[in-house]
Design a protein that fits this description.
The structure holds two protein chains of two kinds. By secondary structure, chain A is mainly β. Chain A has no helices and 15 strands. Chain A folds into two domains: 1-29, no CATH class; 47-174, Trefoil (Trefoil (Acidic Fibroblast Growth Factor, subunit A)). Chain B is mainly beta. Classes of the chains: A mainly beta, B mainly beta.
């Protein structure tokens, strides 16, 4: 069973095709009577994080701070998940990870030298990027504009687009 | 002993044929004094699927969409929705097919008797396609 052309979009048809082991031929059987397995980051693969407000801006490192910015294919927009430290690292500087500033006392999001502490632990929880203590990545004030600060905040229900992110895996060579 | 043409239907003829190891040449002896009903639940070791246990088929593409019966027939991927019968399937050990919960008389099939490369759900016939 093969998702035709590898197009990951609603309504894309499913066919049979010669085995090539692509992701579009891989499926998980999820029994309905079991809790759903968490979908986590794929380890060590480069990705961008796209906020789901209308501007579809990307999480971007600006100095040591994080903001949203239109896609510019810069290394400041590229990340990877490190399963050993459970942190999201800058792909271009893997000594630094996303972190809550002031060792977790602040809600501002910064890049900080990786130490694997709780304030650097993030998981993917559906459309949310969730900190170990339950706060989620949030475009401050829901302002959908370049340069807007990104913080962590309590989850505002299920439908706040300023807290929704899409993980899009990319080929690092394109950056 | 070969069920002619592999047609799994009442009254179909049984013949002898060159061996090709198809399911229509395989037989199981069931002694009358032994329990002859197969379990309807639990792991089916041949398929690796649990019998009659509903499941979603989730694509491993990044958005993890679910296989869905679309417009009553075609198969596509769409966002997974809880308890949507068009996204729920189960393995039927009697026909050895994957059936749709929304259309329990239909199984995942390759259309046109296996000549197409599309997939859909069709009335269960337990043929190879």
């Amino acid at each position: 069973m093969d998702v035709r052309g590898g197009q990951d979009r609603n309504g894309q048809d499913v066919i049979v095709w010669s085995l090539h082991n692509g992701l579009n031929q891989q499926w998980d059987v999820v029994y309905t009577d079991l809790p759903e397995p968490p979908v986590n980051f794929q380890p060590n693969k480069p990705f961008v994080l796209i906020n789901q407000m209308a501007g579809k801006r990307l999480l971007t490192l600006s100095g040591a701070n994080f903001v949203v910015q239109s896609r510019n294919n810069s290394p400041e927009q590229l990340f990877k998940f490190d399963p050993e430290t459970k942190t999201i690292k800058m792909f271009s500087n893997q000594l630094h990870s996303l972190a809550l500033s002031h060792a977790g006392k602040s809600r501002n999001l910064i890049a900080h030298k990786t130490d694997g502490a709780w304030y650097q632990h993030f998981i993917l929880d559906g459309k949310f990027i969730k900190n170990e203590r339950g706060l989620v990545l949030d475009v401050s004030g829901s302002k959908d504009r370049d340069g807007q600060n990104v913080i962590v905040w309590k989850k505002n229900g299920e439908n706040s687009l300023n807290q929704h992110w899409q993980v899009s895996y990319v080929d690092a060579d394109t950056v | 002993m070969d069920v002619q043409g592999g047609r799994d239907k009442e009254g179909n003829n049984v013949i002898t044929w060159n061996r090709h190891n198809g399911a229509n040449q395989k037989w199981k002896i069931l002694y009358l004094d032994e329990k002859d009903d197969e379990p309807t639940s639990g792991l089916d070791e041949d398929s690796g699927l649990f019998r009659n246990r509903p499941f979603y088929l989730i694509s491993r593409l990044p958005k993890h969409r679910a296989l869905t019966v679309s417009h009553g027939r075609a198969l596509a991927i769409t966002d997974k929705k809880k308890d949507n019968p068009h996204q729920i399937f189960y393995f039927d050990h009697l026909t050895r097919t994957v059936k749709s919960k929304a259309y329990t008389g239909k199984s995942i099939s390759i259309p046109n008797k296996g000549r197409n490369n599309a997939l859909d759900v069709e009335t269960t016939n337990a043929r190879w396609w």
